[in-house]
Amino acid sequence: MSDLVVAANRGPYSLEEADNGELTVGPAGGGLAPSLASALRARGEKAVWVASAMSPLERRAAERGGVETGDSELGLRLVPLPEETYRAAYDVVSNATLWFLFHGLFDSARRPLFDRRWWEAWEQFRRYNAAFSTEVAEAANEKAVVLVNDYHLPLLGGMLARARPDLRTVHFTHTPFAEPVELALLPREVSRQLMEGMSGFGACGFHTARWEGAFCRSSMATLGKVATTFSCGLGADVARLHEVAASPECDEALTALDEVVGERAVIVRSDRVELSKNLLRGFHAFSALLEERPGLRGRVCFVARAYASRESLSDYLAYRAEAEHLVEVLNERWTPLCGGDPPILFQVDDDFPSTVAAFRRYDVLLVNPVRDGMNLVAKEGPALNERHGVLVLSEQAGAYEEMSEAAIGIHPFDVAGTAAGLATALEMGAEERRRRSSALSELAVACPPAEWLESLLERARPAGSS
Ligand code: F6P
């Protein structure tokens, strides 16, 4: 039992099984979990993280009674769910429906499509939220604070308000939120349950005023009322980044990168292989840059780092295949015109020290999501860069609200405009680069995870008490 409970689909630990069947617990990879976990540990007060048992190994561990993390500051409770419930809630509703809705990814001539299979998945999504509610209620002391994360768990607000009205709850959405016209893509009953569930939290938080405003407008349109809301943008986790930057693995990766890129200017991007990250238009924009600026051929390369994501969904597999194919086609076209070296290096792996090395080394960082709640790459890059690199940033990223004065803004669908933005960045004078990069590195570290976490926890209230 604990006075502070965090709930999120993905936990802060990764589990492995040794040959002798023993479980080992290590830190989880990227995303929200590592930053939030280190901020929780830094508080020096025991917290418990309630997460899905995502893999068969985690499911077995949850059924056997849980996992001992060996971490006195941060415990873990895995929610044991039947695989079909988990897959329906995570794949069909959370990722293929709500994620698409919040990032404006639907091609509405074809999708969304609410057939019988989808409605069954919605029932499973309700069961998934209910299982979290049970687990949180068991983990939380009287009047404990509960921080719930993201679109996987919107129904938890209403469920906890009924089961444990003593708890002080706060929900934080790390994605954008849908405007009423977008929310109307969901069947009315679904949007009603979604907004009702969220209005059961003591407060609902967002990275920016824009997503907060969208939530308020959607809540008014759906329920005629709005929960207590706030916005608070998360900054880069500099302490963790600097630790990786100082590691021998990162230095080795930087040396390797230097060898491959040679004297060429370097454009970097780093994302999950994710439709909202807009990789394809990024590659098209780089090609347009080489087209428009023949003088840059052979003098610039594009290091596109990505790590695989959500490969249980066909959309993500197809997107990755399309990106790999596009890079092949563009490299075939441009390599002979660029002195024989492929100008695009598309690296799909899960190697954080290499990503940090690329952040240290870039001349230009391209962050061009279709839409994004915040986008921490736009902050992690400038926090680490050692070359007065320029940030080319989508106006649709939450980070743009904070960094527009020092970044070069681009419209994510405007490939020609993105190419022009890259050209401006590459051709920028030294003084201007210095001015912008020092502003960026300051903006990037405002509100680091520990401070961000405190302001979230301060907002936690019993449901309906505002
Ligand atoms: O940006 C929203 C988010 O849920 C993050 O919190 C998380 O790091 C990321 O998406 C990754 O999602 P998943 O857990 O599905 O890989």
Key terms:
globular, 18 helices, 6-stranded parallel beta sheet, Rossmann fold, 48% helix, single chain, 466 residues, binds 6-O-phosphono-beta-D-fructofuranose
Residue share in helix: 40-55%
The fourth-level CATH homologous superfamily of the largest domain is Glycogen Phosphorylase B
Total of helices: 18
Distance between the termini: 26 Å
Percent strand: 15-25%
Number of DSSP-assigned strands: 15
Uncertain residue segments: none
Shape: globular
CATH architecture of the largest domain: 3-Layer(aba) Sandwich
The overall average pLDDT, rounded, is 96
- Major sheet strand order: 5-4-1-6-7-8-9
Subunit arrangement of the protein: single chain
User: Which molecules are bound besides the chains?
Assistant: 6-O-phosphono-beta-D-fructofuranose
Report Rg. 22 Å
Secondary structural class: alpha/beta
The largest sheet, given as strand count, sense and whether it forms a barrel, is: 7 strands, parallel
CATH topology of the largest domain: Rossmann fold
How many separate domains? 2
Q: What CATH first level of the largest domain would be assigned? A: Alpha Beta
List the helices and strands and how they pair.
Elements: E1 2-7, E2 13-17, E3 23-27, H1 32-42, E4 47-52, H2 56-63, E5 74-79, H3 83-102, H4 116-139, E6 140-149, H5 156-163, E7 168-173, H6 180-183, H7 188-199, E8 204-206, H8 209-223, E9 229-231, H9 238-245, H10 248-261, E10 265-272, H11 279-292, E11 300-307, H12 314-334, E12 344-348, H13 352-361, E13 364-367, H14 377-384, E14 390-394, H15 398-403, E15 408-410, H16 415-427, H17 430-444, H18 449-459
Parallel strand pairs: 1-4, 1-6, 4-5, 6-7, 7-8, 8-9, 10-11, 10-13, 11-12, 13-14, 14-15
Antiparallel strand pairs: 2-3
Helix pairs in contact: 1-18, 3-4, 4-5, 5-7, 7-8, 10-13, 11-12, 11-16, 13-14, 14-17
6-O-phosphono-beta-D-fructofuranose binds at residues 10, 31-32, 150, 174-175, 309-310, 373.
